[in-house]
Amino acid sequence: MGESEFKKLGFVGLGAMGKPMLVHLANKLPKESRIYVYDVVEDAMNEVCSKYPERVLRASSAKDVAHQADTIITMVPEGSHVRSVYLDPSHGVCSADISNKLLIDCSTIDTATSLEVKEHIEKHFPTASFYDSPVSGGVVGAIKGTIAFFLGCAESDPNIKRLTPLMEMMGKQVIPCGGPSLGLAAKLSNNYLSGVIAIACSEAFDMGMRSGLDPRTLAKVYAAGTAQNAICDRFCPVPHVYPEAPSSGGYKQGFKVQLMRKDFGLAVDMAKRVGSKNVLGEVGLETYDGASKDPNCRDLDSRVVYRYLGGNEDWQPTKNGA
Ligand code: NAD
Question: Which of 5, 172, 310, 311 has its CA 20 to 30 A from that of 302?
Fold first, then answer.
């Protein structure tokens, strides 16, 4: 990283993901760097500003962040929030003079909104650069600094040498995906695949267990056969097959089912928009929609879809006395 880089950074959105990402930056940036932060929730700002009183400074709006900082990272929930953070005529990033600034949106949103923001910036501030760079790895990954960034640009992009070291302070992998909005397209297609696998995995375990198989045997069979995948291996939806899977801790830690529903819906919309045939999309969306509204599943890890589909969680021989 060059000496002059990242002296004045901005961060908007200090939630479950944004806060730990900011903490990595506060711990790792050169001593003289300052980070200007903004969140609509006052307490979120108070917490980080009091933890790093000299280094993390509170801004009054996204516009104020953009005014103070040269490089701005945003991490908010949905497309409507991204639109307001960037395009709000009185308080948005683009209501400041952002000429020559570097803007990185890490939120998982629809590609159309991301492109709309990028086009607006290109039109009004041709020397500014905007990138989509959604992340994968969850809250635990954000805390550990192991998240992956899917960066919406080519490997030959002129800013890649500035972007990569910054992201490597918050995560362990940066994958340039080819061009604008393609980081998002990659992320949505990944979560679609992961979500479909979790449903298929839940159904496969359930039919095997109802036929009399021990789920640990089934897990060994899948791992040895053509069905091997990370959901069965490390995020097994059936509790107590893999001790560190969220299911084994009551589905408490992990990727919330409502977030899976959101990303799955965005992926299905993207498939429609680009004319991709998508036979599992509607049924998958219906399943995650139902699970995210079910009081027994809401707020829990998305692999709780196994519970939603009626899977037996109380299978352990010791528990059953078998
Ligand atoms: P969150 O709801 O915990 O945090 C979002 C933060 O943005 C909140 O503090 C909220 O107050 C703030 N915010 C909302 N609107 C704002 C505005 N207009 N101006 C300033 N701040 C505003 O959400 P999160 O879990 O941190 O997720 C953020 C993004 O990351 C989402 O797009 C999500 O899909 C994605 N993501 C989440 C996870 C995860 O496991 N939580 C994993 C990967 C990606």
Answer: 172
Per the DSSP assignment, residues forming a β-bridge with 151 are: 176
pLDDT digit string, tens, across residues 52-72: 999 999 999 999 999 999 999
Q: By alpha-carbon position, which residue is closest to atom 14 of ligand 1?
A: 76
Measured by CA distance, the residue closest to atom 8 of ligand 1 is: 15
Domains of the chain: 3-178 (3.40.50.720), 185-308 (1.10.1040.10)
Encode pLDDT of 243-253 as tens digits.
999 999 999 98
- Enumerate the active-site residues: 187
Distances (CA, A) of 246 to 46, 155, 191, 292, 295: 31, 35, 17, 16, 18
**Does ligand 1 come within 6 angstroms of the Cβ of 274?**
no
Q: Tell me which residue has its CA closest to atom 27 in ligand 1.
A: 77
Report the alpha-carbon distance of residue 180 to residue 294 in Å, rounded: 36
pTM over 0.90: yes
